[in-house]
Amino acid sequence: MRYPDIEIYAKDVTFKQIDDWLKQHFKHVERTHTESKKSEARSHWQADGSEIIAFGNAIGKYSSIWFKQNNSPWDTDLDCAKIACKELNTQIRCSNSSWEEGQGPESQWWRVVEGEENMLIEWPES
After folding, report:
1. In whole angstroms, what separates CA 66 from the centre of its chain?
2. Does residue 39 sit in helix, strand or coil?
3. With 80 as the cut, is the pLDDT of residue 107 above it?
């Protein structure tokens, strides 16, 4: 099943690293806007017609990378997380299911670490 949007959380990454990573997977990537206030750091991209927003340090040291429309190469958050983990060389966390308007927050998340088996965890509490 293809999710309508994708969101992953990458530990200790910069907007530059995200920009370089997006350019590996999309033909046309343009960073359209960046806010660098520490409490509201975020960057916006257009990538092959899709909007992507990264929120710096959204949860602790984890930055959110949100593909608002899933025109990405990946069907699910976990598919994206596995590739991002390897290519960004960092731990990634993502929801264990698709989210729809009106749903409560997810309690179990995938923890993806290179060289380790993917593990369901309680997060952000853990």
Report:
1. 5
2. helix
3. no
Burial of 52 (0-12, 13-18, 19+ CB in 10 A): buried
33-70 confidence digits (pLDDT tens): 999 876 789 999 999 989 999 999 899 999 999 999 99
Residues in the chain: 126
* β-bridge partners, 122: 108
The structure's pTM equals 0.91
Q: ∠ CA 45-111-36 to the nearest 5 degrees?
A: 30
User: Sheet harboring 29-35: ordered strands across?
Assistant: 29-35, 42-47, 50-59, 62-67, 6-11, 92-95, 108-112, 119-122
Q: Which of 36, 19, 31, 4 is nearest to 87 (CA)?
A: 19
Task: Provide CB contacts within 8 A for 121, sequence distance 6+.
Answer: 93, 108, 109, 110, 111
